[in-house]
Write a structure and sequence with these properties.
- By secondary structure, the protein is α/β, with parallel strands linked by helices.
- The chain has a domain at about 65-200: Rossmann fold (3-Layer(aba) Sandwich).
- The chain has helices spanning about 1-50, 65-75, 90-100, 110-120, 155-165, 200-205; strands at about 80-85, 105, 130-135, 145-150, 170-175, 185-190, 195-200.
- Strands 3-2-1-4-5-7-6 form a seven-stranded mixed beta sheet.
- The termini are far apart.
- One of its GO terms (biological process) is regulation of mitochondrial ATP synthesis coupled proton transport.
Length: about 220
Amino acid sequence: PGAMSQAVSEEIPQEQGEGGSRRSSWGLLVTAGVGGTLVALYAVATPFVTPALRKVCLPFVPATAAQIQNVLKMLENRSGSVVDIGSGDGRIVIAAAKKGFQAVGYELNPWLVWYSRYRAWRDGVHQNTKFYISDLWKVSFSHYTNVVVFGVPQMMPQLEKKLEDELECNARIIACRFPFPCWIPDHTTGEGIDTVWAYDLKHSRGCETKSLEITPETES
């Protein structure tokens, strides 16, 4: 009996040691899994959060179907290229490309740019679209004829000045959700959050050219 008792006492710690080792392995796996998940979440979330930490941020809020239709209405009978400032997931750019425009989007979030490129390829308009990962304040929009902006109130005064300095007189600026503070819109459509304002720069800047009127000579 004494020998059996000793053997049992020797086996118990060994089993406990094996259980503790298994629990330790599972703990390491769980820790590694949680750590990997947090790293992945950080990689995905950082491009979304970083713009919000800027002095003037342009958060991603998907355009509604009504907003897209209102933007397209403001592009009717327009020619030239279209650029969407803060293009998000590319909805406006893709919709404009489907209407025959060469459309470009600028977006700071790389995940949204890659997704936009995928959507353009999926919808068969990738040849008429381009998406760039860029800060809008570091880009010149001087060669674009039609500009779409989904802005926030804090950025509109500064953006108004930037566009007025860069764009040609034949440009049209289409603002969604929030109007520009100083310009008077030439056209407005929609209501509530779906309201869209269109500004023809030739009117806002006062550079509209008038055709010369030729008065026929009257016989005396």
